[in-house]
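Retro notes, structure queue

What went well: the backlog is down to a handful. What didn't: a couple of records were mislabeled last round, so from now on we paste the full input next to the output in the thread. Example, using Sodium/proton antiporter (CPA1 family) from Nocardioides albertanoniae:
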Amino acid sequence: MTADLAYVVAGASLLLAIVLPDLLSRWAVSAPMVLVGVGMLIGLTPLPDGLPLDPQENRVVIEHVTELVVIVALMGVGLALDRPLDIRRWASWRRWSPTWRLLAIGMPLTIASIALLGWAAGLAPAVAVLLGAALAPTDPVLASDVQVAGPQTGDHEVDESDELRFALTSEAGLNDGLAFPFVYVAILLATEGAVSHWALEWVGHYLLAKVLIGVLAGIVMGKVLAYVAFRSGHRSLRVAERGESLLALAALIATYGVAEVVGGYGFLAVFVCAISFRSAERSHDYHAAMHEVAERLERLLTLFVLLFLGMALTRGLLEALDWRGIAIGLALILVVRPAAGIVALTPWPGRSQGAAALTGGQRWATAFFGVRGVGSIYYLAYASGESDLLAQDWLWSTVAFTVVASVLIHGVLATPVMARIDPARG
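Corresponding output:
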C-alpha cells in the first residue's frame, strides 16, 4: 500500500509539474507554494499513513533525494548562464563581481549572524554554526522566478544582460558548494571539540583543498564532455550533432561522482562543469536542449520533495518548533540576508570601472531574494548523520519552518517585485 501511494504521489507531482507553471504565470503564486499547501492538506488525511515522513527515521533517504535534486538544479543553473567566465582575463572576473561579493562577504556574514542568534538563544556552538551554514546558501531549486530563464543560442553574441537575475543565479550555483566548509565547522565542533584541535586541518583540507579539487574536477569534466559532444573524431560520439540531450544527466552524475571520489566538493564541481561545458560552442542550440532536460527533471524532483515536505508539516515535523526557531527563521529572511546582501553589494568608491553594475533597486532585490530551500534540508540531513548532537528535532523543525516561510514570502513577492524593477521581463 505504501509503495502504491508513493506512485500516486509521484504521478500527482508529475501532473502538477506540467500544468502549474503556465497556470500560475499571471498570479503572485508560485508552484512551490501550491505544492506545499497541497501536501499539507494530504497530510491531514489518512492517505500518508506509512509513508517515510519522519526525518529522524528516514535521514539517509532524505539526504540522497535532496542531494540529487540539488545537483540536477546546479547543472541546469550552470547551463542557463550566458555570461562567460574566462579565468585568464581580469575583465571577465570583474563582470562577475556581484557574485564574488555575495559569496565572499554576504554568505559569511549570514552564517555568522545566524550562528550568533542561535548561540544567544541558548544553542550549543556546533548546533548554532550548523543552523547558520545550512540556512545561509541561496537555493538554485526554488528560485526560478528570480533567475535567468535559460541559455540564449543562435547566431549572435551570447552574454547575460540582466544583472539582477544573473547575480541571483550565479550566487545560487556557487554557494551550495561553498557552504560545505562551514557545515564541516559544525561537524568538527561536535565531534572533535575545541577549535585548536582541528583549525589547521579545516583551513587546509575542508576550506582550500576540497574547494580547489571540486573546481578542477568540474573544469576537466566540462572540457572533456564538451570535446566529446562537439569535436570528437568519431561521429557517433558527437552527440551534439544529433541533439542527444540526455548527456546533461550523464554529465551531472559522472561529475558529481568523480569530484566526490577524488575528495572535492561535488556540488561545486557540477556547477563548474556546466559553466565549462557552456563555454564551448556558446551559441549552439545543444545547450538549450540540455538545459531543458535538466530543468524538467529538476521541476519534477522539486515538486515531489515539496509535496512530501507539506505532508510532513502536518504530520509532526513542526512539533519541536518554538519561538526561537520562528524568530531566527523570520530574522534570516527579513533582516539578516537583506542586510548582508546590501553590505556585500554596496559599491566600493573608485572601483566600479569595468565591473558589472547593479542599480539601487536591483541591489535591494538581489539582497532580499535569497530563497532558502532543498539545499538547506540536504545539509541538515548530511550533518545529522555525522553527530547525534546535530540530529535534533528542533533543527529539523526550524529549517523546515524557514524553508516554508521563504517559499511563501519570496513566492508572493517575486512576480510583483521583478515586474516593478524590470517591467519588460517581470
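Agreed that this is the format going forward. Reviewer comment attached to the example: The mean pLDDT is 85.
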